[in-house]
Amino acid sequence: MGETDHPLKRLVLDNKEDFAAWLLGDDVQIVQVTAVGGELTADPDPIDTDLLLLVTLKDGTQLLLHIEFQAPGSRKPMPLRMLDYLSRIVQEYRGIRIESVVIYLARAGRNDTGRHAVYGLDRDGQQVVRLAWNYTVLHLWRLDAEVLLQSPRTALLSLIGQTRLHQPEQTLAQAITRIKTETSGELQYRLLEELLLLCSNEEIAAMAERLIERNRLPETPMMRKLREEGRSIGREEGITIGQMQGREEGREEGLAEAALRLLTRRFGSLDATIQAQIGALSVEQLRRLTDALLDFTTSADVQQWLAQHLLNEIQRPQ
Question: Is 236 inside a domain boundary?
Fold first, then answer.
């Protein structure tokens, strides 16, 4: 996958000092990118890790910060994947402190505590630990939004749509106001873009979009795309059937283009067959595809999703 295949990964990369300090709970001096979607122990069976950052703390201590992002839908349980990651990281980066963090989105990893072990019996029949591995777990969906609002690190506010929002409109308004007053230029633009992309559902995203407009902040490409797609189709009075059909066709085209753009950013160039299948989806199918995007971990998931939904469409009674 490309090194900016997910908005959360882009957000961390663009603000790596802030995120390293937050995840480690320590003052950070320098953060260098060691690997982004890079292979670990290439032979004989390479696996890709999300982020490896070489962090130098204020006191001069160096460590590796290993970060994995996980939405629902992983075929292999995350604890076993982390065991694989950690064993390979230890082999490749010997003699350096390692801190691993799994960031769960969208109610994923509800039973993962980050503490795991394999047990056996000793000669006396007593249970003993044969293998143990630990990592930090951050369930964004369990995190109260107020925690981020209280942080002095403005970049963290782009995560607000993934957290527990007890008062969504008020909380989003506070986050957007802080981004508006504490940042400017390209940084402000990108933080707003990632905030929208990382909203947990369409309702929260629409609310955030309205608040951004109300604050007279710059329109992001995502907002512009939604507007071009005709989100308000049919709301205007007095339009003809022909006009509605034309707008519906334009909306399908816009949604398909947006889905292709997001999938390409996640998995690189897509096969022409996949592109054609996405272009043939209905508006409702395109909406379901957009909702499912965060659950995909490889391009094979895209193919499987399309095969299933196209099959269902063929089998549906006429």
Answer: no
